Amino acid sequence: MTDIDQTGNTPRSAVPTLRAGKSSPTIYDIAELAGVNPSTVSRALSKPGRVSAKTAQKIMDAAEQLNYQVNVFARALPTGRTQTIGLIVSDITNPAFFDVIRGAESAASARDYTLMLAESAESADLELTAARRMLATVDGLILASPRLSDEEIASLAAKKPVVVINRNVDGVPSVIADADAGVSDAVRHLADMGHTEISYVAGPERSWMSARRWESIKARCDWHGIMAAVVASSQPTVDGGRRAAATVRAGTATAVICYNDLMAIGLMRELQAAGLEIPNDLSIMGFDNIFGSDFTTPPLSTIKSPLGELGAAALQHVLAALDHADAAPTLPALPTELVLRGSTGRVKGS
Amino acid sequence: MTDIDQTGNTPRSAVPTLRAGKSSPTIYDIAELAGVNPSTVSRALSKPGRVSAKTAQKIMDAAEQLNYQVNVFARALPTGRTQTIGLIVSDITNPAFFDVIRGAESAASARDYTLMLAESAESADLELTAARRMLATVDGLILASPRLSDEEIASLAAKKPVVVINRNVDGVPSVIADADAGVSDAVRHLADMGHTEISYVAGPERSWMSARRWESIKARCDWHGIMAAVVASSQPTVDGGRRAAATVRAGTATAVICYNDLMAIGLMRELQAAGLEIPNDLSIMGFDNIFGSDFTTPPLSTIKSPLGELGAAALQHVLAALDHADAAPTLPALPTELVLRGSTGRVKGS
DNA sequence: CCCACTTTGTCAACCGGTTGCCAAATATTG
DNA sequence: CAATATTTGGCAACCGGTTGACAAAGTGGG
């Protein structure tokens, strides 16, 4: 009662006999129909070249006729392989991950792998649970900005190939957005606009990426002779940005770079609510160029991360590790890029 | 070389013998250690009450000691069950799905199911591929605002439990946000503000939900004696909203309700760019209350959908269908709610 | 034409669980 | 205490593929 013709062709009237009570055909059904041994069917289907073209064709025809689909569990049982890669993002709600997901997904499809997605809602515990669960059913795992400890990540990586995005963990391959390129342009732009003192609203204390971004900013500011200081924050979210507003106002910097766009948006809105004009009274810049960063008034200037490329590169690296377990080539850092919009401008009165 | 102590306790010095060359313990290892038959182990682990408390305890201890984890494939092979539910969203990039995902995910965790997420990037083809792939490894499937045809959905539903979110497909259970409640308040609000003519910028032509929203708006407008007309659109995205701007300007309506927030944002930004003042020159309202809908200036007034509840309800319904294959209770429609912000206001000169 | 070598297909064991059936052990009852 | 009812555990078959070992068939060279 279940046989729906999936091709849209005229429905074949009768599907050749299946074993009674069985809902889906197996290689045994194909073997019988094609007059060969089941193992030959298995080889024809998964070991190209192992059987003669003639029998292979017979088997393909039979498979087609029965509308055969491999049972992934049966295949996974002896091989352990599922053609699936897991991706865990720390927060599905953070638009920064959109493109990471898209990038990984399309890289996966291109190689006939399926992407399995999970999120940890910013909780290290949930993340560990999700990672463990996934690891059981997946050939490899990508962790995007994980909240896990280095040890936990290493322990996962000991079991199956793991690639980390935007974080550096000893012994675990990672793909990283190189802040320098974008920061260099951004700081030069601010310098051109007459700024001589800027603040960096940092991300989470334990965030490796936040530290890197600050390093990069500090280095460029020194080069330009600009004063730079860090403002600590609570969370890398819109709310976190809002809460940093008081500290920012108390300071004397004329430009602020935030750890990410979410914070920049929160900061901007809070300051605007308090009567400041952006960018006249203060220039604000974010990181990542997320969805919605141009919704604000003024639209946000930001340092764009190669999010899609990061996702794709991570996936490709997992696949490479799967192919030749030895090779672990260092990955090129992917460059960031300045996106100038309306939230940065000339220092007042200059 | 792989045995990482996962508990954080002092590492046990020696893990009891495993069969040579095996990486992870099986029920056979447990059986040996506990001095019982493998089938007893299987029962102790998955059929509570089937074995005596005493042996169950012995087995649990042995399992703990070996750090046992079931092999999901081996379990799935005979049973066909994976404790996994799939969720396919039409566009991971659409913030409206955030809460749907979160809602479904937490409902799944609560029942010890894992959620498997995929997206179709707004393509019916990709969606079908993703759905087919998922169906093979998943106990049930949730389709959020699917792009598939009714027939395709029905054909998927013929194989495993499927629940559709925000769409009505004959014979397939669905959970739906009831526009009426929110629309009723919204139209009353607009009437109070002096509006006598409003436009509805529609979603995709084939969108069931868009039609329902329009019906609801039309009915309420009639009730209030307000003129209402539909403006067709291209896509339910920010860009789609932008492209509707010209048509909207050409009309005489003083308030516009858009199919979703994304469109409302696009429309608003485009009109602002053209010099209109919102809400003075025109009131704009969206649907859903997505992330970012309060980033705009003015922040968007919108009719909030119970997105999280939708996701959770869908998941629970799939689980219910799995439990008692017969029961298919009709699901209560979940109410929407008006969220008033700055993009709607009094008609100019009134 | 024979022999060595390669290709192709078969057999059977295995992956790690689940489950129907049965017998042994234990509990209940008159 | 015997007879019956109920638990409890073991045996073995099964889920649907994969794969090493081997034999049959095919190929080519001398």
TrEMBL record, chains A, B:
Q: Which PROSITE patterns match?
A: HTH_LACI_2 (PS50932)
Q: Name one Pfam family in it.
A: Peripla_BP_3
GO molecular function per UniProt: DNA-binding transcription factor activity; transcription cis-regulatory region binding
Ranges of Polar residues composition bias in the record = 1-12
Q: Which residue range or ranges hold the HTH lacI-type domain?
A: 25-79
Keywords associated with the record: DNA-binding, Repressor, Transcription, Transcription regulation
User: Which InterPro entries does this entry report, sorted A to Z?
Assistant: HTH_LacI, LacI/GalR-like_sensor, Lambda_DNA-bd_dom_sf, Peripla_BP_I
- DNA-binding: present as a keyword of the record? yes
Extract the ranges annotated as region (Disordered): 1-20
Q: What is this protein called?
A: LacI family transcriptional regulator
Q: Which organism is it from?
A: Arthrobacter glacialis
